């Protein structure tokens, strides 16, 4: 076994998405555009949901929160990744690296739990519409959001505390473009088996359990829709779920496979590739999906554009 230099690591070097200079420039421009679009698109949805009283319903309350988490989730990693593209390497203090891990997992876990709450909201709206306003009252919505925050805080804090207690020495290059648990554990000069087990079991439990709850909600929705004789009513009811369902598939696809793989060199390289999907692509697609497929959001956006146009005229 190769001996490590026991010099304590205080600063970490993050590697860029690619080492080819031309592609770094191209990716920097593309990612900058996508990141700005993420901010603008999600801010627009948040503004519409907050200012339009017709959208003051549980569904859009959750949608506004989802847009907020898309902004902070991508902002946790994308700016540092773009610094790496601009400078070829990006340095970050070890303590700041651990803080980034905390917020990355905190916002990521909260978004997963929020998508689960949104699936429950769709289940109640379709399968129990007469009691929808009672079941999904304002206090219930706030309790669901608060639960998402508290569970995510505990989950992220557990990983952060355990990582902060590890000694780091030797090479200080992280095989990733942002700080994450698996790549950082490669720098530890102590037994990391507990950390690796917790990543698999705790993260796996949250990912699998939330996905199963979402699957259960849509199974019940599907069973209920089959009982509806009118195909028009069936399509109308299911259309309220399609946006959420697409977002769920985009979110869980790369994320689940990423955390349930063992931390080998090949898997870490694959993690770098899939990380681009859920840190950049998914937050960009969410406002597009909801804006294009949701009639009420489109009507509200059109109304505001017309109001501004004629207001100026």
Automatic annotation (TrEMBL):
Cellular location(s): Cell membrane
Chain's gene name: or5ar11b
Gene Ontology cellular-component annotations: plasma membrane
Transmembrane segments: 20-48, 60-78, 98-120, 140-158, 197-216, 237-255, 275-292
Name the UniProt record assigns to this protein: Olfactory receptor
InterPro entries assigned: GPCR_Rhodpsn (IPR000276), GPCR_Rhodpsn_7TM (IPR017452), Olfact_rcpt (IPR000725), Olfactory_GPCR (IPR050516)
Keyword list, A-Z: Cell membrane, G-protein coupled receptor, Membrane, Olfaction, Receptor, Sensory transduction, Transducer, Transmembrane, Transmembrane helix
Superkingdom as given in the UniProt entry: Eukaryota
Pfam families assigned: 7tm_4
Molecular function (Gene Ontology), one example: olfactory receptor activity
PROSITE patterns, per the entry: G_PROTEIN_RECEP_F1_1 (PS00237), G_PROTEIN_RECEP_F1_2 (PS50262)
Organism whose genome encodes this protein: Xenopus tropicalis
PANTHER family tied to this protein: OLFACTORY RECEPTOR
Bilayer disposition of the protein: Multi-pass membrane protein
Family, per entry: Belongs to the G-protein coupled receptor 1 family.
Keyword Membrane in annotation: yes
Matches recorded under Gene3D superfamilies: Rhodopsin 7-helix transmembrane proteins
Residues in G-protein coupled receptors family 1 profile domain copies: 41-290
């Amino acid at each position: 076994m190769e001996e490590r230099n026991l010099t304590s690591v205080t600063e970490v070097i993050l590697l860029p998405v690619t080492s080819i200079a031309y592609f770094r420039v191209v990716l920097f421009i593309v990612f900058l555009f996508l990141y700005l679009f993420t901010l603008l698109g999600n801010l627009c949805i948040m503004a519409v949901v907050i200012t339009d009283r017709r959208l003051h319903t549980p569904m859009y309350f959750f949608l506004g929160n989802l847009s907020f988490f898309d902004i902070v989730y991508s902002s946790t990693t994308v700016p540092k990744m773009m610094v790496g593209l601009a400078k070829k390497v990006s340095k970050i203090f070890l303590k700041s690296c651990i803080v980034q891990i905390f917020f990355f997992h905190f916002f990521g876990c909260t978004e997963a739990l929020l998508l689960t709450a949104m699936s429950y909201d769709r289940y109640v709206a379709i399968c129990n519409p007469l009691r929808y306003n009672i079941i999904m009252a304002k206090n219930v919505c706030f309790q669901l959001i608060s639960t998402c925050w508290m569970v995510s805080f505990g989950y992220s804090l557990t990983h952060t505390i355990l990582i902060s207690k590890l000694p780091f020495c030797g090479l200080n290059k992280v095989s990733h473009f942002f700080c994450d648990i698996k790549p950082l554990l490669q720098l530890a000069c102590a037994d990391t088996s507990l950390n690796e087990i917790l990543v698999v079991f705790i993260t796996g439990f949250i990912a699998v359990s939330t996905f199963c709850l979402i699957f259960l909600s849509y199974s019940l929705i599907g069973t209920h829709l089959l009982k509806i004789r009118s195909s028009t009513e069936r399509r109308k009811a299911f259309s309220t779920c399609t946006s959420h369902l697409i977002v769920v598939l985009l979110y869980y696809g790369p994320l689940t496979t990423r955390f349930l793989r063992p931390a080998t060199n090949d898997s870490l390289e694959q993690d770098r590739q899939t990380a681009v999907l859920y840190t950049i692509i998914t937050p960009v697609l969410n406002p597009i999906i909801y804006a294009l497929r949701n009639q009420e959001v489109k009507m509200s956006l059109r109304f505001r554009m017309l109001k501004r146009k004629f207001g100026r005229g």
